[in-house]
Amino acid sequence: MAGLNLRKAPAIIILGQASLATAQRLQQLYPEASIHGLNGRVAGADSGYESFGSTLRELYLQDTPIIALCAAGIVIRSLASALSDKDVEPPVLVVAEDGSAVVPLLGGLGGVNVMAREIGAALSVAAAITTSGELRFGTCLLNPPVGYALADLEQGKRFVSDLLAGQSVRIEGDAPWLAQAQLPADAAAQRTIHVGCEARPASRDELLIHPRSVLVAVSAESAELAEHVRAALREANIAEPALACLLASDQHMALPGLHQTAQQLGVALRFAAPAVSLAEMVEQSVPGARLSEHSGLLVAVASAPIDPAQVGRGRGRLAVIGLGPGAAELMVPAVKRELSLAEDVLGYETYVRMAGPFRPDQVLHNTDNREEMQRARHAFELAAQGRSVVVVSSGDPGVFAMAAAVLEALHESTDPAWHQVDLQILPGVSASLATAAQAGAPLGHDFCVMSLSDNLKPWSIIETRLDLAAQADLVLAFYNPISKARPWQLGVALDVVRRHRSGATPVVLGRDIGRPGQTLRVVTLAELLPEMVDMRTMVLVGSSTTCTLPRADGGTWVYTPRWYPARS
Ligand code: SAH
After folding, report:
1. The domain 432-559 is classified under which CATH number: 3.40.50.1970, 3.30.1360.110, 3.65.10.10, 3.30.950.10?
2. Which of 321, 394, 513, 535 to mutate to test the pocket of ligand 1 (most atoms within 8 A of CB)?
3. Biological process GO terms, please (predicted)?
4. Closest CA to ligand 1's atom 13
5. Which residues 6+ apart lie within 8 Å of 206 measured at CB?
């Protein structure tokens, strides 16, 4: 996506199966884009949606570039109510379902024509460009490429109108991308395109563009650090849009104030190993930059735009995520976002596959042959190098899954780089909750969650806990109820439970819930046999108040009332 000033990956929206092939060609062009297909009409999309109009409006308002494979009219009608501020909108394009036409509709300042040309080139069709300035000059002057920022949009619009009206222009400063543009250039022109860092208002005859070539080194966090940086830039007579990134010592990587400051200023925060002096640290990060000190901060001005990704390194991130039971709709949006940001993905192959599809640049580590602690350490090793790492669990990562192992690995480690990693645990819908929801509300009152696996704890503990939980009349949710290596345990567990519960107690068996071929059964405790259960089953055993009622579709609702009878 070089040259495109996009903040977000595009969404490719399709309404029918016939568009999928074109959508996939577009995805090759924009590998980070995801294909959204209408539920029930499209198989093989990355995600599904119910309503075309509300999906489109939601993406538009979230500033997501939209490529819709349908008639332009449908998109115009759908977005009409959301169109308000033309200066801040994402690119919106329509592409004919057979790939024979591409029409940029909205987002001229967000680079829609650049995308239209890229798509046109990929599909071997001409892009339907209608923007006058763009047609005349072959580029949108108001949308400079990555590394450059326009000083004043309104001023810029007037400037482009002047050029369209016949004025000629000359260029001051370094603007390599304009070399290909067909500008009415004239060394004696009154109108100038000025490329420079300095802070000053654009003159009437000028298009002022700031190269993002400034770095400020920050050594500590303070409440007013953002203001402090702004003051330093003012003192140095540098325009704020010229700021490309902040640089700090990697010892300060975890300080929240630094990250907030970078966010407030809308720039990247990068880290370097502390050299002998701050000046040396900056010198190593942006060789050849002009250094000066203002308001006690070190300001570095490079001769060309700075690519923050090339400066020092970023803070590594490790997210332990829960996929939910399996169905994409049951995955929380924060998890989806994290998966799209991931550079490395670790987990059991089945779960990693469930979390996909992934882009070719994402590294998948299928770690079936490793035990949990080893996988957790591997994740930290990668994140401590500055990478963005995701560890995948099914259901919720904190329920008999990777989150605790990751924290244990961190607890054991004395490596400061591991402790500075941005660690996030993102929840998911656990199997007991997904199963309960399908059965009704069996967990509607107090309940107890247990793993019946004695791989990591002695069997005697399991029996004691079962006995006490059953005695306390808690609803019981069993994870890992049985496996080939643990064939007899479930039978013994049920014997313990039966000491305290009547044979009529409802039991819910959810197998592969939220996955293809899911089954849900309701039996009684008396009927329940270990053969009805396997390692992909969730077992919910009711309490004395759990009851059932018939569903109109022939099934059974199971619920545990909120109240509990008073006991003498
Ligand atoms: N972290 C997971 C649980 C891992 S333990 C979660 O929160 O759901 C694995 C056990 O969870 C399995 O043996 C099974 O008992 C249960 N389980 C996981 N996914 C399931 C599903 N989709 N349907 C039914 N049970 C499931």
Report:
1. 3.30.950.10
2. 394
3. methylation
4. 480
5. 155, 159, 191, 192, 193, 194
Span from the CA of 334 to the centroid of ligand 1 (angstroms): 21
Distance CA 132, CA 161 (A): 9
CA nearest ligand 1 atom 17, residue: 431
Nearest CA to ligand 1 atom 9: 480
Q: What average pLDDT does the chain have? A: 92
Question: Reduced to 3 states, what is the DSSP secondary structure of residue 227?
Answer: helix
Region 455-484: what's the mean pLDDT?
97
Tell me if the domain spanning 317-429 has CATH number 3.40.1010.10: yes
Q: What is the pLDDT of residues 211-264, one digit of tens each?
A: 999 999 998 777 799 999 999 999 999 999 999 999 999 899 999 999 999 999
Residues in the ligand 1 pocket, defined by CB under 6 Å: 325-326, 393-396, 399-401, 430-431, 435, 479-481, 510-515, 535-538
- The per-residue pLDDT for range 365-414, each reduced to its tens digit, is 977 656 889 999 999 999 999 999 999 999 999 999 999 999 999 999 99
- Is 3.30.420.180 the CATH classification of the domain at 214-308? yes
pTM over the 0.70 mark: yes
| Protein fold of 11-130 | Rossmann fold (3.40.50)
State CA 10 to chain mean position distance: 13
| Edge-to-edge strand list for the sheet holding 317-322 | 363-366, 344-347, 388-393, 317-322, 422-426
Structural domain boundaries in the chain = 11-130, 148-211, 214-308, 317-429, 432-559
Give 567 Cα–ligand 1 centroid separation in angstroms. 35
From the CA of 530, how far away is ligand 1's center (Å)?
17
| Mean predicted confidence (pLDDT) in 195-211 | 91
Which atom of ligand 1 is the closest one to the Cα of 483?
Answer: 13
Token pair listed for 293 = 């000190």
Contacts of residue 48, Cβ cutoff 8 Å, sequence gap at least 6: 36, 37, 38, 39, 42, 328, 329
